[in-house]
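To assess whether ligand presence alters the predicted conformation, the chain was also submitted together with 4'-deoxy-4'-aminopyridoxal-5'-phosphate. Input:
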Amino acid sequence: MSTNINNNGLPNIDDLQNLANELFKALPNEFPKEISLSPDKAEHPRATKIAETILQTGHVDPLDQHPLAIPSNVQPAQHSFSGFGVSPSVLNYGNTGASALYPNAGAGFDPQSKNSSSGVQENHDLNINDPHTGFHDINLNNGSPQLSEESIFSSLLLNNQYLPFQTQNSSFEIELQAALASVDTQFKKRDDNPFNGNDSGASYYFLEQNPFAFDRRSTDIVVGNSFDAKEINLYKGHHFNAELVKKDFPILRETVNGKPLVWFDNAATTQKPQSVIDRIAYFYEHENSNIHRAAHELAARASDAYEAAREKVKAFLNASSVNEIVFVRGATEGINLVASTWGEQNLNSGDEIIVSNLEHHANIVPWKRLADKKGLKLRVIPVDDDGQILLDEYAKLLNSKTRLVAFTQVSNALGTVTPAKKIVEMAHAAGAKVLIDGAQSVSHMKVDVQHLNPDWLVFSGHKLFGPTGIGALYGKEDLLNEMQPYQSGGNMIQDVTFEEIKYHKAPNRFEAGTGNIADAIGLGAAIDYVTKLGIEAIGQYEHYLLEYATRLLKEISGVRLIGTAKDKASVLSFNLQGYSNDQVGQALNKEGVAVRTGHHCAQPILRRMGVETTVRPSLAFYNTTQDVDTFIKTLWELKKVKF
Ligand code: PMP
């Protein structure tokens, strides 16, 4: 809104009034919405008061028609008008130098001078970026009179002048302070909160006292889509700003039951960054075609993008060749592929397969079915009460009949990180092949197949911030080429006659039919995203977040943490005394916190730990300590109700 300046150098009264009313309309409801600076139009008593004061002060010449007209003995000046108020100089008349709104500010103020001794600058040009205001505005210090708020209010009160929404006894400011003080903006310590007075002494809920809140301390590093590789290398492993990372995930801006979504179901599936969503949309907008078969531009684009994604998986796992990367639907399909190809071909009655007690059903059922069908023996590596693999017991299971060891690198139910390299070495020493289930590990730690040296490794894209329906099977190239095809049809053959069929080598040999092209490309984008953040930085940040959450969870009596291995990733399985797991899940859902409750497709390990089901929050790098606080707070509320 602009104000017209009269030829006497003052703003038009109607403009001023409109300006004031715009301001009042923007104020909360209890404040007056209309004022008039003209006494006969004044609708509000306090507005009238101000208007009267202004008019009285300005009425130097009773013959003057305009109430704000400058007396003839004052040099007209161009004044600055901006923001909420009127420059003090507007209200400064005659040689007295007195200001109506700043009655005490007059001393030493020289209207002829550009700079007053009270610090008021007379800027003759209207400059919106350098506003000069008459009403004190803490947001607009630049160029304002150097008066304390207190002195302004006391001078107003002294002179019986009030701002429109002030009362005589308490300033708006004081009222506001009082109102704010009565609002509980913090998660205060409660009497039953264990942080009160025990060893830790301090609450961990807020920044300063939180030894693990790297996400809140590290505002100095920008990560997300906008960082560059140099920055990341510099800070990798030291700082991680989860708040910024969160912004890359549009779904994390959702609200659930009116609360911001806290996604703690990452072991089931992860959320997708914008870059992955955009990449898939781009494919359908610009590249969509079947691959390999057609000799046209879009087929070439689609084929290039699909094979580029395979390159990305290869680099991500540090495989030796792209021929070692087979696109599958996910970890489940990868395991089934190995069971129904290599397993069918090579295992015979009396042979033994070893799995661990920690396995997901996906790494039990295919082997159990094969064992039942072929008369194989399925043997199980036991775990201790913390859920850790017992390596010496494993050593006892290995023998000359052992043909395969299939185990998970991270347990989806307990979070246990298994000693993968050791397990592989021991299996190979016994002459067995090894399959690693990497479904829960690839998103939390560097998984290097040349270092770990398994024969196969599987993972799912949707647990790695990529799309569902896509994943990868890594296999040693020679081994893959020795394996019979999994499914058969188009795409996997070199030549077909009714007499004989020649198959492609890996990976095409295992990719019969039209694959999930768009989602393979989306998985490539997810790998790009994770690689940019740095998997080591992710692992380190999540480690602190897990420690933070574990520590808080352990403080709640009635919580039984299930899975307390020394080396853990992401998962916090627990039961809460007095509540079913579903009740806990529902209470958390009410607060916007998504956790999984149930057996997590890992019944053998839960039964080993003496339970049928658990509540399972599982963390990812976009989770923050504030998310953990919301979760912990809800559990405290539940606990308070029962005991
Ligand atoms: N293994 C583990 C350890 C898992 O956590 C999961 C998924 N929960 C799977 C295998 C199966 O993954 P998917 O359903 O994506 O095939």
